[in-house]
Amino acid sequence: MEVLQSLHPLFRLPPTEDGSAETVDNATAAVARLIMAAPAAVPMTVVVPALLQALPLKADQCENPTVYKCLHQLVHSSVPELKPHVGNALSVYGQILSEPRSVQDEVLANDVLPGLRLLFQNPTYNEQASLALQSFAPEARTVIARHLQQ
């Protein structure tokens, strides 16, 4: 897919360049839109790790609804390419929940919290999620556990 090839270099921009954080956030949202629109046309083995590596967004919080809806959709759809990266997805959710003001309340309620809970409920991912959580720092485990119990 030519669009993905064009976006790929944007994920490698140094964070010190002016506007690079916004550019990476926008490229991440563009990839998320492609995944949601045509998942069968996206090379998930390449795209899923790149998407997770770019999260949480650094500068353009307006793109949060798109990227977290996409992540929730990936978890809900039991995408097998996500399985080796469940720890990264869990880490993203943990970072967001540690800084809840970094995302809109609606995004937390509709996509972040359901996506987090689904990682532990979905038989495709629950074992990896439990193992990954054990490797997290105590503070991160506490934040995630608190939200899982709500």
From TrEMBL:
SUPFAM superfamilies registered for this protein in UniProt: ARM repeat (SSF48371)
Superkingdom in the source lineage: Eukaryota
InterPro entries per the UniProt record, alphabetical: ARM-like, ARM-type_fold
Official protein name in the record: Uncharacterized protein
